[in-house]
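Wed. Picked up where I left off yesterday with 2,3-butanediol dehydrogenase. The coffee machine is broken again, so keeping this brief.
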Amino acid sequence: MRAARYYDRGDIRIEEVDEPAVTPGTVGIDVAWCGICGTDLHEYTEGPIFVPPHGHPHPISGESAPVTLGHEMSGVVYAVGGGVSDLEVGQHVVVEPYIIRDEVETGPASTDYHLSDDMNFIGLGGGGGGLGEKIVVKRRWVHPVSNDVPLDQAALIEPLSVGYHAAQRSGAKAGDVALVVGAGPIGLLTSAVLTALGVEVIVSEMSPLRRQKAAETGVAKHVLDPASQDVVAEVRALTGGKGADVGFECTSVQAAVDTLVDALRPTGVLTVVSIWGRPAQFDMQKIVLKELDVRGTIAYVNSHPATIELVESGKIDLAPFITGRIGLDGLVTEGFDTLIHRNETAVKILVSPSGRGL
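Structure written out below (tokens, as returned):
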């Protein structure tokens, strides 16, 4: 089968690889669609980060570069291994793409398996990836999705789960006002979750296309352009001088951090969602004098079932966030290059590894 293989920074190759074997306790999935994530872009431009460098195998997967990329995937079950009795061939599914030690408790009551030692992600740390035609995944990490949800939209459930967990981490509740700085895929999807939960969302974004997406999809009540508007003043005006209750940093840009610290109300919560490739700075005196909480958030933990329910119930429509569909051969030229050099022109670009969805 064909797959996109990450060798090193700036080096991704489309190659023929062996199809994975379906073994007891696993599920074979024909990948329908796989999204290109900001983490994939960081690997391409700055990595390896999550990808184990060649010759340095990951302690759980045992793999090192080259590895198959892709962790935002949807597909159709083509086989189930022994002991798997609650999924069937033909069922639509998404993957919660974790690589976690077998002894870690990952049951429905767990709130921290995503923080366990040596955690990594399928499609980064090994285990195959969604940018291959097929993948085999342990049953624990496979989530069924209604056939009423189109498979291209289902591929966005993984990044939507990031937004769901970020909303949980922030403590945001119905009636709160949230400022989301950055309306890339994660910022928009976090806004979608917040709006579905009854939070009033203000989005700040430089890109006209992404501002338009935030407005036309209804995930934000107010959309601001930081190039022409004083975001802090606007937020204060919209909140009667109080400031936002919660803030979400979704850009990995220093100016976003500064804006959020100033725009949050006293005792507000700043949630850092983006992956940072370099240190950031905080004005600690402002944090102290306003008694702000600063919270990190990474990926998701038992978030997929609730996230899937938001989509299946119609509370979140994922279709508008898909702005491109490509095949494997265009991964770098049409996908990565667009998102790295012209990211203001796209939101979420999906890849059909087999080409059947194009």
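Quick read: The longest helix spans residues 157-170.
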